[in-house]
Design a protein that fits this description.
This protein has 6 helices and 5 strands. With 165 residues, it is α/β, with parallel strands linked by helices. The strands form 2 sheets. It has a 3-stranded parallel β-sheet with strand order 1-2-3, with helices on both faces. The chain has a two-stranded parallel ribbon with strand order 4-5.
Length: 165
């Protein structure tokens, strides 16, 4: 039976740090479900469908990666999928504190739920999707921080925003 994990996140946008974690997760698990969280309390730059397509394009058809989305609690999504392990990346001590609380709450909601934490590679520990969005919004160079397809999508979004002004 294949060992699967869910790698959840907003991925708004997908960064090279996310891609690095996907590749490292595939070294640990037989397959990953990259699950795009739909949080109605946030106003994302990209729609859920756009984010899913950007991820699919970035992983270039790797059959070990399934791209999906979910609403609500991650633990409930995991139960529906029959996958009880999540992969999470840690960049800093502050990430650990938050992830530790989240992992314990999820474990309280579902005792079978497990979290696997992987340290972000040194090349990307400072990269966050929020920071990439902000730099890209003001025309900064994020070419080394995101896959090429995401860079092009960010440039399109910026041009769309400029044309609306």
């Amino acid at each position: 039976m294949p060992r699967l994990a869910i790698y959840p996140g907003s991925f708004d946008p997908l960064t090279n740090g996310h891609l690095s974690l996907i590749q490292r997760g595939l070294d640990i698990f037989d397959g990953l479900v990259v699950a795009v969280a739909n949080n109605p309390d946030k106003t994302p730059l990209f729609t859920v469908q756009e984010r899913k397509q950007l991820i699919r394009d970035a992983v270039r058809g790797d059959t070990r990666v399934e791209v999906d989305s979910f609403d609500g609690l991650l633990v409930e999504y995991a139960k529906r999928r029959g996958v009880h392990t999540v992969l999470r990346g840690l960049r800093a001590v502050s990430d650990f504190e938050y992830e530790f609380q989240l992992a314990n709450m999820n474990r309280k909601l579902d005792p079978q739920f497990d979290s696997v934490f992987v340290m972000t590679g040194e090349d990307y520990f400072y990269v966050s999707a929020k920071l990439v969005r902000e730099v890209a919004r003001y025309g900064g160079d994020v070419s080394g921080l995101v896959p090429r397809n995401v860079l092009l999508a960010l440039e399109r979004k910026r041009a769309e925003g400029a044309s609306r002004r």
